[in-house]
Amino acid sequence: MTRELSERDRLVVEYVGRFRQLTAGQLRTFVFGELASQTPCDRTLKRLVDGKYLMRLHRLVGGTQGGSAQYVYQLGRQGWRLLGRAGEYWAPRAVNLHALAIADCMVKLKTAERQEVFKVVSFTTEPACHVAVGGLLLTPDAFVELKLSDSSERLISWLEVDRGTEHLSTIQEKCERYWKASISGQWDGNFPFVLFVVPDEQRKHAIERIFRAGPIGARELFSACPMARFPPVATSRTPH
User: Fold this and answer.
1) In the 8-state DSSP scheme, what is residue 233?
2) 43-77: per-residue pLDDT in tens?
3) What angle do CA 32, 113, 72 make, to 5 degrees?
4) Is 12:44 a contact under the CB 8 Å cutoff?
5) How many CA atoms lie within 13 A of 129 on its CB side?
6) DSSP state at residue 146
């Protein structure tokens, strides 16, 4: 029953629902980051799996946390009901590496936040971050808002988490939509910066060629950054 869940248990379920899938290491960062021991996290995850709030997939090697293999978690049937998800319960049978890469960005932001350079004001995942601007549907993987620690300045950006699996023509079409939306006059305030988080330098250079081939005015709207060097805070943009 949902009443048996503690506030922290429910938070774990909400995080998994928000990102669709998360590793144990990612959940430790989000919910148990202040604890030196990983035992409370492990016990919580076992309890939620036993109660069918979460479902555990096979072990995944590596990721942001590195080290030995770790399980991946997604919503179980009770978790689906707890969060009020519409429709019949459905659980993927495979690890969603793209979803985990988006969560890796949040992990890196939360880790950088501890250095007190900025505060993570919001990290909105898809589909909640999708928006229509000037008749164009923009479908970023996440919307990020940061507040600099030494000022009231806020930095906003849309993230496109690229694993190198999409054809470059698809990336070009995305950039064209962002550019047309940015000049449509239908966005209130400064248009968010668009940051492509990519797997390596080779992919970064390939995507940067797309930026350079576009209109000169569009080039300052985009940037690409390897996951290993995320987040490049200085490249984000400030809203009005």
Assistant:
1) G
2) 999 999 999 999 999 866 554 444 456 899 999 99
3) 40
4) yes
5) 22
6) E
